[in-house]
Amino acid sequence: MSPNPRSAKAAASPNIAFIKYWGNIDQAIRLPANGSISMTLGGLETQVMVTFDPSLQADELDAQSAEVGSDPLTRISQHLDIVRDLAGISSHALVETQSNFPSGAGLASSAAVFAALTIAACEAAGLELDSIELSRLARRGSGSACRSIFGGFVEAFSGEEDNDAYAEVIALADHWRLVDLIAIVSREHKQIGSTAGHALASTSPLQAARVADAPRRLDVCRQSILGRNFPPLANIIEQDSNMMHSVMLTSTPPLLYLSPPSLAVMEAASSWRTAGLRVCYTVDAGPNVHCITHADDAEEILSRLRTVPGVEEIIQAPPGAAARVL
Amino acid sequence: MSPNPRSAKAAASPNIAFIKYWGNIDQAIRLPANGSISMTLGGLETQVMVTFDPSLQADELDAQSAEVGSDPLTRISQHLDIVRDLAGISSHALVETQSNFPSGAGLASSAAVFAALTIAACEAAGLELDSIELSRLARRGSGSACRSIFGGFVEAFSGEEDNDAYAEVIALADHWRLVDLIAIVSREHKQIGSTAGHALASTSPLQAARVADAPRRLDVCRQSILGRNFPPLANIIEQDSNMMHSVMLTSTPPLLYLSPPSLAVMEAASSWRTAGLRVCYTVDAGPNVHCITHADDAEEILSRLRTVPGVEEIIQAPPGAAARVL
What we know:
The structure is a homodimer. By secondary structure, chain A is of the alpha+beta class. Chain A has helices at residues 72-87, 109-125, 131-141, 145-148, 194-200, 207-212, 214-226, 230-249, 260-274, 295-305; strands spanning 6-12, 15-19, 24-26, 31-32, 36-40, 46-53, 60-61, 92-99, 153-156, 167-171, 178-184, 279-282, 289-294, 313-317, 324-325. Chain A has 10 helices and 15 strands. The A-B interface holds A 205-206, 208-210, 212-213, 216, 235, 238-239, 242-243, 245-247, 249-250, 252, 254, 256, 258-264, 266-267, 270, 310 and B 205-206, 208-210, 212-213, 216, 235, 238-239, 242-243, 245-247, 249-250, 252, 254, 256, 258-264, 266-267, 270, 310.
């Protein structure tokens, strides 16, 4: 590598998990306890610029990057270390991030950050990795980041070791006109970040059963996506979300990410589906509720969501594109 | 039995389960999937009068009795059939009930009804059963009624067959000055009654794990009661409540008994405990939240509960007495 600074910039979107990842077999390398399926969220984007600069005495973050988890510099430096090891370089880096959506409120902001960081860092370091290698590497930074490498509908495999745990595309973004209507009920940062939460999953007496049942949920979800079959997709998405929150609520200490307005949106979405609309809810590690709907029903759901007490804002996202170098 | 009408009247209190019963091994005879522990609720009482009358062409209920579940006459008649079989009588009966607390909203109203019904019917039929036999018999009418036969702190055993499944006293009512402050957030009847709900428990992928873990929870709860040790009691009560609602939320169809105000009270109770007060929450198959507290902290918790949005009324109940003939 030349002694001059080398920069690269990449962009990635967050994703909403239909079948959720919660808990690791190996916390250090974020080897997920179960596979997962998500939709990459178009229109929401995090851009990350990485500049390896031999003149730096340490890795540095700009202000906004400091919102990634509880100790962002350590976490990002550890991720850069993996890239440096692979590339055989030793320069420290300046990392600058910019997002057009709120972080830390269950919108999988770290997934977008680490997907873009992985791509930008590899590009700046001169590493040429294929998308599966990038996915595997992104997972080391944030478990769900392995999915944000890809666009459309994406499945992440669990695997027994690092090599097996990466994501692949189930269907491209134009396969199915779904929309994620994200009901923002709070912009506050979550009390316990996902990384700390994952470490508690195994303390729940329900986690093993949730993991053991995952192949069934993955099959139903994958087949529903491939066949564009909304009713079974809706049921399995809601059941999977409830299973993750079950584990959260019964871990030691318990994690209560749902708030009263979250529950109001969840109840409403289920009742609208009973009344014939294509909509279901799913909630990540935060209070905001993702209402997955079909594009043809999105306007109706949007206007109804605006009437639910506690909903401050609604963000719309169709299936999005893969992460990319800018 | 004489050809003249024979009447008896009995009273029983509902109970709040600290370790909850949810799901049956044998639905027909309500053989519970797991053991349970409860506190009988003093001051709340259901009185049941049973009159076996040879002149009746069928069993009859008065108006208020018609609130027990979805088909109360059938359910009560089936229970009377068991008593008639044991006593060798064939007369139909008039059943009159009267309660001083709202039914159908997670206050275990059927537990009090079937405990009192069992005692009144046996008395009127001239059957002399001991309290364990009465407990076993009450269970056939309503699973949690086996606990309402007794006062104070009560444990129900699961057992492999009818003979093993009954309740016994852990400690009498004066053992520990706990208070149940029941935050009423809705007086509406629940959408799905407990009997129908129990039948769905096995459809949850989490029920087997919940049942398998029950002996641990029962041990922690029993030891905490015997040692009057509030912190571990509070933690296990909340975890057990969350485990039951986890199963409910992940059954097919899912059962969402919690409402937004329920969640607000749950959050509040946990935060008050973190701040040093002796209080924890538990929620049965309905939206109302039972806040279990120590008598010395009850006034403070009561005044705080009144400030939680959605709380319409608060019912107070100390440990109560056993069911009895009036």
